[in-house]
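Quick one, T. Sequence first:
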Amino acid sequence: MPVRYSTNKMGPMLKQWYTERGLELWTYSAGRIDCRGEDLGPYGEEMFLAPMLNEDWNRFSDWLRTFETDALWYVKDIIELYERKNPKITWAEGYE
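Structure tokens:
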């Protein structure tokens, strides 16, 4: 049974996070990747997804909805495959 993936936006939500970095409010999104598949049990798996530019989040999210694998992949491997044919993701400072 295939594993399907989707993003789930969780933050950063504190205005302080943005102001400490000199960023405009809500320029970055972060959260997790939700992984679903029969072999992953009723609740699936969740993987941390570091803060990235909103436009990168949206583009990656759209691509991820079309992505599926036969077994669970790590975030690093998913990102590596994504960046082969898509623009590189711009991560928040400290998350490269």
